[in-house]
Design a protein that fits this description.
The protein is α/β, with parallel strands linked by helices. It is built from 13 helices and 9 strands. The radius of gyration is 20 Å and the shape is globular. GO terms for molecular function: peptidase activity.
């Protein structure tokens, strides 16, 4: 029997619970906040990153999911409120799949009669796909939000998009400093493209953050008003309190985030991930949800995943491309995001 160490419990009423605990895994332990309807189906939330944390997801899910579902907000290995990663060699995709399997078994042991569903965002969507390949028999349904199955596609697509934009800006540049800057970007894009993507953390930040800002787009946001609201929300101390974070704890979680993300991004296997062919074995219901302008994973990633899910019956798989939205759908297109997830889980958890 898997041990679970409980930290805190509060009850709003007979059906609603809010409790947190640790689940032991190999050489570490994972933090889980369990909140929602104690009698409802279980959804495990898989955060992005790698290295992110689940605490702030509750800002969205509390209102539209917790009334009917029990949500396990999991912090993955070395992330959030989970123990700090002491061995970087264990920060790899297969270990995270193994860790998730321990979590699934632990929750099944505690709630044996409950269906378990997965809700994965960004890297969490990828982790969910990896888990479904090996262990789909333990899962009722899976919502893949802004996830990827082909890791090289978004990298090469971003390089090409930025090359086209930089060449256009270079042609229009009037002063020598601007010409030099766009020339430098073009030279660096060639260098990145020929690098082999073994040590990719720093180059990833250039491609996804620095260069888009200089070239007039955002890989993660399409709706400027929603982006502004998200920035303001990030300045609200009550927002952190609702997520269960002091500023000191948040700073610690962000340091963990950078460390875990750096290890993954400097790993050949992660950067060259391609499970497009492998996901054909999945037979359980899957929702694929992506923003129209999600350059972080590549604008055609969702369609590629959906088309590759050949083992899922057509009436059990859904593809939703959200207009005028990018990667951060929970804040960038909240209504469409929540409606798609709720209707999917409601259909497959009756």
């Amino acid at each position: 029997m898997l041990a679970v160490v409980f930290l805190h419990t509060s009850c709003q009423n007979d059906r609603q619970i809010d409790t947190d605990f640790f689940i032991p895994i190999k050489d570490s332990k994972l933090y889980v906040r369990l909140a929602g309807n104690a009698d409802g189906p279980l959804i495990i939330n898989l955060h992005g990153g790698p290295g992110g944390f689940s605490g702030f997801a509750r800002e969205t899910y509390k209102e539209f999911l917790e009334g009917e579902y029990l949500i396990a907000y999991l912090d993955q290995r070395g992330s959030g409120k989970s123990e700090i990663a002491k061995d970087s060699t264990m920060l790899n995709m297969q270990q995270f799949v193994t860790d998730l399997d321990v979590v699934v078994d632990s929750l099944k042991n505690r709630y044996g009669s409950k269906d378990i569903n997965l809700l994965g965002s960004s890297w969490g969507g990828t982790l969910g796909l990896l888990y479904m390949i090996d262990h789909q028999e333990k899962i009722n349904s899976f919502a893949c939000i802004s996830g990827k199955a082909d890791g090289m596609y978004p990298i090469l697509a971003l390089i090409e998009k930025e090359r086209v934009l930089a060449e256009e800006f270079l042609r229009k540049a009037k002063d020598s400093s601007s010409k030099a800057r766009y020339t430098a970007i073009l030279d660096k894009l060639i260098e990145i493209e020929q690098s082999g993507f073994n040590e990719f953390f720093n180059d990833m930040n250039l491609l996804k953050h620095a260069y888009p800002k200089e070239l007039g787009f955002n890989a993660y946001w399409a709706n400027k008003d929603a982006h502004k609201k998200a920035i303001e929300l990030g300045k609200d101390t009550a927002y952190y309190k609702r997520a269960g974070y002091s500023m000191e704890l948040f700073d610690s979680a962000m340091a963990k985030f950078e460390y875990v993300n750096r290890v993954f991004r400097n790993t050949y296997a992660y950067n060259h991930l391609n499970i497009i062919d492998d996901i054909s074995v999945i037979e359980k219901p899957v929702l694929v949800l992506q923003g129209e302008f999600d350059y972080a994973i590549g604008v055609n990633q969702g369609r590629m995943i959906y088309d590759a899910l050949t083992g899922v019956p057509t009436d059990n798989k859904v593809l939703r491309i959200v207009p005028n939205a990018a990667h951060n759908l929970n804040l960038g297109a909240t209504r469409e995001y929540t409606e798609a997830i709720k209707s999917f889980f409601d259909k497959h958890n009756n």
